Amino acid sequence: PAVVLSLLVPFSLLSTYAMWEVGYIGIFTSSFSNWGTVQVLCDLVVVCVLAMIWMVNDARARVLNAWPYVVVTLLAGSFGPLLYLLRRGRAAV
C-alpha cells in the first residue's frame, strides 16, 4: 500500500491541476491534437482495458467486488486500478 500511495498522491495532484487547467473534456480533446498524442491515448486505453480485466479476475479469486473500481477506471483512468490495489492490499491483511 505504501508504494501505491506514493504513486496516488502525486498523480492526484497532477490530475487535479490538469483538470483545473483544461477541464475534464479538455483532457480528452487535447489527446487528439496530433498522431503522437492519439497513439499515447490508444496505449492508455489498452492498458486500462487490461487492468479492468485483471481487476475483475483478481477480485473473483479474492471474493471482492471489482465493479466500483472498473467504473472509476472508465471515468478517471488509472485511479481505478490504483484504488483497487489499495483495497486489495487491505483485504489481504
Explain the overall architecture.
By secondary structure, this protein is mainly α. Helices cover 86% and strands 0% of the residues. It is globular and about 40 Å long.
Summarize the structure.
By secondary structure, the protein is mainly α.
Intertermini distance: 11 Å
As a percent range, the share of helical residues equals: over 70%
- Catalogue the unreliable spans: none
**Strand element count:** 0
Order of helices and strands: HHHH
Q: Which shape, going by the Cα principal axes? A: globular
What is the mean pLDDT? 93
Mind summarizing the main beta sheet? Answer: none
Structural class: mainly alpha
**What is the C-alpha radius of gyration, as a whole number of Å?**
15 Å
Share in β-strands:
under 5%
Count every helix, treating DSSP H or I runs of 4 or more residues as helices. Answer: 4
